[in-house]
Design goal:
By secondary structure, the chain is α+β, with helices and mostly antiparallel strands. It has helices spanning 17-44, 79-83, 130-134, 164-172; strands at 67-69, 89-95, 103-104, 110-111, 113-121, 140-142, 157-159. The structure holds iron/sulfur cluster (2 copies).
Length: 174
């Protein structure tokens, strides 16, 4: 049985003076093109990033970020909790004593229930805004605060009757 073996050997290309000059020209052209793009982005293009946290984005007034309930004007109607598609609003309220002083929300709605708990689990909230839409006293609003990351899911439950919540709100909402 005959076997034929084919071998090819590539001869090195001869480097002429003309090719040497062409190589140099191509190298200079490629580096110049790359540096041109770099310089364009360094000097000619406005940056799209900011130096956070030294510089902060100012969100539009109507942005839907962290919720705030001005609990003094909440009439415990539960409408927000009913509207919430993910059931992340927890309210506990009891009927006010009939002899207790009459209370009204800032828009004149009578407050007939004592609010004992108003908590929103922001880890579940999808920021749809439905709860704020149905609130009859407009005490539940979105703020523009987007800096409320926490280390645990439990810390994402915000108690709007807690004493520090108004301090937080005054810091954020001007
Ligand atoms: S914004 Fe939407 S998901 Fe979040 S608490 Fe309100 S209704 Fe629920
Ligand atoms: S809809 Fe408004 S007033 Fe009613 S329970 Fe919710 S926050 Fe309070």
């Amino acid at each position: 049985m005959n076997t034929t073996t084919l071998t090819t050997t590539r001869q090195p290309e001869e480097l002429t003076f003309k090719k040497w000059l062409l190589n140099i020209f191509r190298a200079v052209k490629t580096v110049s093109k790359g540096m041109g793009i770099t310089l364009k982005y360094v000097y000619g293009v406005k940056p799209v990033t900011i130096e956070y946290p030294e510089v902060r984005e100012i969100l539009p007034e109507n942005s839907r970020s962290r919720l705030f309930n001005d609990a003094e004007n909440c009439i415990s109607c539960y409408q927000c909790a009913v509207a919430c598609p993910v059931d992340c609003i927890y309210i506990t309220a009891t009927k006010r004593d009939k002899d207790a002083p009459k209370l009204k929300a800032s828009n004149g709605n009578p407050i007939r229930l004592d609010l004992h708990q108003y908590t929103i689990d922001t880890a579940l909230c999808c920021y749809c805004g439905l709860c704020t839409t149905v609130c009859p006293t407009e005490c539940l609003t979105h703020t523009t605060d987007y800096e409320f990351a926490q280390y645990t899911l439990d810390s994402m439950k915000y108690d709007y009757l807690a004493p520090d919540i108004r301090a937080w709100r005054d810091r954020i909402v001007k």
